[in-house]
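Why should sequence recovery work at all? Because a backbone constrains its sequence more than one might expect. Tight turns favour small or flexible residues, buried strands favour hydrophobic ones, and helices have their own preferences. The token representation captures these environments compactly. In the example below, the structure is given first.
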């Protein structure tokens, strides 16, 4: 099993103000060379995500109001 770098992403809907914290991870070390995609390990209630086809990165959204946009 490959070691993974882990971190959190603060989420906030600009429409309703709902907040949460997603947990994500990515392959570490030499394994990163083969798989640079970020995996979502936990998404808080009220939020969801899609994976961007080009970058392989998650794009989070509020279930009620859509895309969170950039901070």
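From this structural description, the recovered sequence reads:
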């Amino acid at each position: 099993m490959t070691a993974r770098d882990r971190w959190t992403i603060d989420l906030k809907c600009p429409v309703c103000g709902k907040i949460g914290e997603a947990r994500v991870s990515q392959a570490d070390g030499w394994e990163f060379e083969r798989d640079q995609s970020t995996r979502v390990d936990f998404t808080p209630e009220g939020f969801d995500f899609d994976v961007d086809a080009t970058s392989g990165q998650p794009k989070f959204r509020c279930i009620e109001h859509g895309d969170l946009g950039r901070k």
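A few observations help interpret the result. Strands lie at 4-12, 19-27, 38-42, 47-51, 58-62, 66-67.
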